Amino acid sequence: MRIVSRLDIKNDFLIKGLALEGLRKLGNAKDFAKKYYKSGIDEIIYIDTVASLYSREGIFKILMETVQEVFVPITVGGGIRNVDDAYKYFDHGADKIFINTAAVENPEIIDKLVSKFGSANITLSIETIKDQEDETWGVYTSNGRDKSNKELSDWISEATDRGVGEIFITSVNFDGFQKGFDIELMLNILEISNLPIVLSGGFGEINHLENLSQKLSGIAIGSSFHYGKIEIQEVKDKFKTMNYEVRGE
Amino acid sequence: MNNIYLFNTGISNFLSVEYALKELNYRVKKISNFEDITEESLLVVPGVGHFDNIMNKLEECNFKNIKSLIDDKKLNFLGICLGMQILFEDSEEGSKKGLGFFEGSVKKLTNRFYDNEHISTNVGWSKVQFVQEENFTQFNDDFFYFVHQYEVVPQNENDIFAFTQKFNKNIVAAVKKDNVCGIQFHPEKSGQNGIKFLHSLIKGFYE
Fold it and tell me: Which among A110, B29, B96, B144 could bridge B190 via Cys, Cβ 3.0 to 4.6 Å?
């Protein structure tokens, strides 16, 4: 089980929406990444929340600084519209990139990225919400604001055929609430996909790890680490007691 | 010790490799053409990308000029991830010929692993077992970071330097023959263990 720290970034800053509070600036993103590295994190995900609106200079700067001191994988995304955008992320130190909006709007971009960078380095980020009326899982973009015309399992099989190497899935309605992971979503996606799955959204207490599946490739944790509520080591220790394979002592 | 040459493939996480080497106080010279290699040293080719793309890049950048230096053991070669896969004869990922320093092919993981239970990308941290040299058994059972969809299948078992296990089957994690070494995992992204391993590996080239 990979423990991934998810850092949402606006300009140079780590931000996180805590339930009902709106977005808060928490500090310099690189400092957080470095702290997590020293504490044994397995992977860092940088999500540039404003890249598609403004320039990427902020995230490039953070990335270049982080890669000098953080020797675990750094996955980066936000606002990638074409091969050139992806190239620039790699050039500034990304080890892996993820795409969401551009792929939903124009799935051919996946084929292009895969032929250039190889499947293993292309992660598909999916934001999903279950429709309470017809019980289907909708695919969203722009941090859960915009609903696309795609349905989760169709979208996953299309993106898999086009060659994405991994799925990073966020349950929009669980994200930031710290009430536990969306287990229904987890069971559903493990059923429909053979790609490695990283589940994001909802973690807040150690006992939230109890209902997870060994088939998950990783979990992403944001607020609980950012606010110092739970330590990385506590998460790893808990997984070890449940006989998961986790890195570290 | 001379500069370590780090080849910028144009598409790679070469910054990560550069800083990992600098962490060990090595002097790193980034090159984008093999003609810039003027000293006997170590060449590192990192890898993110696609087999054919990187082979094209090697051709464009005059790899042929330095091949004999490697053959004559004047230049050590370390390939990481895709940089390892190109050391073989061919790959199912593309149609270009590889460099052929090792006999064997690069095959898609799904050929052995894909069914309802198993996944198609090997991504994450796995324990590695070193089988070739005493010095490296200290790293046995350490975790290293992997991210790949293709695996190398060497013809000669003696070339295998390390294994990892996935779904109870072995995957070749590293190959080594004299002055040429290929590593499937990313030591530059495997925390302090990875850095320590890189150090042992590089020192080994000069002993």
Answer: B144
pLDDT tens string B165-187 = 987 789 999 999 999 999 999 99
Q: Are B75 and B69 in contact (CB under 8 A)?
A: yes
The interaxial angle of helices A57-66 and A29-38, nearest 10 deg, is: 30
Q: Residue B136 has which token pair?
A: 């490296």
Shortest CA distance from A37: residue in chain B: B191
Q: Residues 97 to 126 of A: which have CB under 8 A from any B CB?
A: 114-121
Q: Which domain holds residue A161?
A: 2-241
Domain spans of chain B, in order of start: 4-205
Q: How far apart are CA A156 and CA B191, in angstroms?
A: 32
Pick the CATH number of B4-205 from 3.30.420.300, 3.20.20.140, 3.40.50.880, 3.40.50.720: 3.40.50.880
Classify residue A232 by its DSSP letter: H
How far is the alpha carbon of B43 from chain A, nearest alpha carbon, in Å?
A: 20
Q: Is A248 within the bounds of a domain?
A: no
> pTM surpassing 0.80?
yes
At A37, the pLDDT band (50, 70, 90 cuts) reads very high
